[in-house]
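User: I'll paste a sequence; please echo it back and then give the predicted structure.

Assistant: Echoing your sequence first, then the prediction.
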Amino acid sequence: MILGAALSIAGGVIGSVVMAWVNSLWTRYNRMQDIIAQKKIENNQLAFSHMKTVEGLLVQGTIDQVNSEIEKHSDWYFSNAIFLPTKFCEKWLTLRSGVYLVSIHEKEGDRTITPEQLTDEYQRLSVLAKELLIIIYKDMHINPVKPKPFRIVKS
């Protein structure tokens, strides 16, 4: 009887210690997930902003401006890649390489590439930039903004 009571007390103490330990592990895990989610949101926001700039420069700027913008943020992308969607990182590396190659061809005045091929490459890079933005939208579970066409009403 005394042995039964002693085992009961010991079991209760051990049970409460184990429960407290499991609870602290669960709390730490949840806190870590909250920090990761917050970091992902911040990084998606910055990546979106950078890609909007790149997308605009592909349409209105020069390839050197695009290359400069990409290289200016390359260190940031490499150090924060773990918090960005995997597909985003893969496509961003493709965009970066494509911009660099087009930049070299333009600087050297490469005659092996026709102006039509260069135009096609610009369009491909522009589509790639749009795809990168869509990846961020999907990762954030947000629908892309689609502006409605502006119409002039004649009076």
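Residues 2-60 form the longest helix (59 residues). The radius of gyration is 27 Å.
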